[in-house]
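Let's practice the habit of predicting before peeking. Look at the sequence and jot down your guess about where helices and strands might fall. Then scroll down.
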Amino acid sequence: MRVLLVEDDELLGDGLQAGLTQFHYIVDWVKDGQAAINAITAEQFEIIILDLGLPKRSGIEVLKVIRSKGIITPVLILTAREGTENLVQGLDSGADDFLAKPFDLDELCARIRALQRRGTGGRAKPAIQFGSIVLDPAAHRVSKDGELITLSRREFVLLQLLLDHQGRVLSREHLTQNLYGWGGDVDSNALEVHVHNLRKKFGNKLITTIRGVGYVIEKQEE
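Done guessing? Here is the structure:
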């Protein structure tokens, strides 16, 4: 999952980027409100983690601008415990959830997963099941026919993306951005290699190639 982190505190931002990366998230980090607006309006993210006290444009301004443009990406705001007034304003401006500082990384990841489930059709169960395949985002485990399957970090992210959007063709550009973000050194055939590896582990029929567009996992018949 590709996350945009908007945080001007260098120490906290560096820690969050490193910590979330360990949990298989692709994290792009900007440090002021205007850079956040530019990034959000130009590219696609699945979750935005937004501090309210930012230079150039406040977090509240960022929220108002992106919501006025019809951008519905889930936003989790970070707030100081004493910032009740700003918190209410943030939620009223279009935020989806909040987390008070200081917070635990595990709780942040749990809230991100909850927002992701809400944004992909309100999936109630934390695990994703597709036939004999079960993917558990919280535990970062995948099994097939009850047997654990070892995946690289990016293979896991790619499989989750495709399973979360069953029946929807995801473009090569969208998938590559979600796998590598801004800082990734991407080979031209890197995405194809990950798809090939997943097909070897789960069967050639799992992922369908739409030539010239991207990839899709077709929905299972009811």
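How did you do? The CA atoms of residues 60 and 72 lie 15 Å apart.
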